[in-house]
Amino acid sequence: MAAIASNQPSNSADVFASMGLGQSTKPTSASVTADMEDRFLTLLTAQIQNQDPLNPLDNAQVTSQLAQINTVNGIEKLNASLSKLLAAYDSSQAMQSANLIGKGVLIPGSGLDFNGTIGAGGIKLDSPADSVIVNIIDSAGNTVSAENLGARAAGSFSFVWDGKKEDGTTVPAGTYRFEIEALSGGEKLEATALQLGTVNAVTRNGNQFALDLGSLGTVPFEQVQQII
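Structure (tokenized):
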């Protein structure tokens, strides 16, 4: 029986060799991937049409190579979609940050400014508390007031202080600090002090946004625990 000769590649490895690519070669862009697909399918079609019946194509190998091309193409499309999502997220965060200008925000810190009429701060509890007491302390380290906030659920919340001392007199305007005593079943709970700041401006550094809080400095947007 006469053998049928063919100048076409006899397997998928030869197909890639004809394309100038090894099987481990990975495209680096969507355009390269598309061109690679077109060339592969063209050569594969010619190979099928002119294959040697005595040395047929290795179907498993061809299927494997097609799967690799589809995987690379899928990754390219996924990366493009993620880029669009990140761009949309950045725009959304920019709009949200800009809307904070002029508003009060609670960030980690124990400072408390009293303007002569009112002072405000916040607390973050990791778990519910049966009792929460806020001790207001002056610059000399003296406790001037102990505010009992009662039972509180887990999460962040704000409180206000009227500036009254234990004897009913009002403290001078100025900067104070506070400490938290949170209890549940007689056990001390983890509590984070939050100080109040006013957003004066929003700045951007790359993909990150920061809030200018005046005397409190500039803090990352992610540090905001509550907007008041």
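The helical segments are 12-18, 30-49, 59-98. The chain is about 30% helix and 35% strand.
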